Amino acid sequence: MSITLPSTDFGVAIPFVKHLGFVLTVFSDGQSEIRYMARPEHLNSYSVTHGGAVMTLLDVTMAMAARAAPGRTGVVTVEMKTSFMRPSMGPLVARGTLKHHTATLAFTEATVFDEHGKACAHATGTFKYIKRLPTGSKSVNSFNRLPTQADA
Q1: Which residues of 104-135 are buried (b: 16+ CB within 10 A; e: fewer)?
Q2: Is 138 exposed, middle or buried (0-12, 13-18, 19+ CB in 10 A)?
Q3: Rounded mean pLDDT of the chain?
Q4: pTM score, two decimals?
Q5: What's the burial of 1, exposed, middle or buried (CB within 10 Å: 0-12/13-18/19+)?
Q6: How far apart are CA 10 and CA 3, in angstroms?
Q7: Are 84 and 120 in contact (CB under 8 A)?
Q8: Which residue has the higher pLDDT, 131 or 144?
């Protein structure tokens, strides 16, 4: 998969990620990096980034690290463990790493850092590699694919 960085194109249409405004800045060799600036509607009652938005940032960062292995495209989250270390405020950057993979599973981790380079949250995750299934009446797992120039 070829993605020109930085990009809001994650290779597939993910409306929630688009809504949050994630920007992919690294996608190569089992590594990923995503930048994010929470908008007011993404904050909690303490005026810091909501934990759900931070968990989504970690999840997507780990998924992109898993997808950044050669020949890998689709993944789904099997499990995820998250630890929150400090409030996530201001511009955030999440860095993910593919630690190990088998033919069907990817084992990953990611950390969210604030603008001062301090770790705010960390996660480990397991992802299942899946093939992109053809869409149609017999498909139960269609994906919202982004249009390509070939579709024009």
Answers
A1: eebbbbbbbbbeeeeebbbbbbbbebeeeeee
A2: exposed
A3: 89
A4: 0.85
A5: exposed
A6: 8
A7: yes
A8: 131
Quick one: pLDDT at residue 72? 79
Q: What six digits make up the tokens of 147? A: 């249009």
Under DSSP, the state recorded for 67 is H
The predicted pLDDT at position 117 comes to: 97
Per residue in 13-63, pLDDT (tens digit) is: 889 999 999 999 999 999 999 999 999 999 999 999 999 999 999 999 999
* 79 CA to centre of own chain: 14
- Contact between 127 and 59 under an 8 Å Cβ cutoff? The reply is no
| Cβ partners under 8 Å of residue 132, min gap 6 | 73, 74, 143, 145
- Nearest CA-CA partner of 67 in 37, 39, 26, 36: 26
Residue type at 26? V
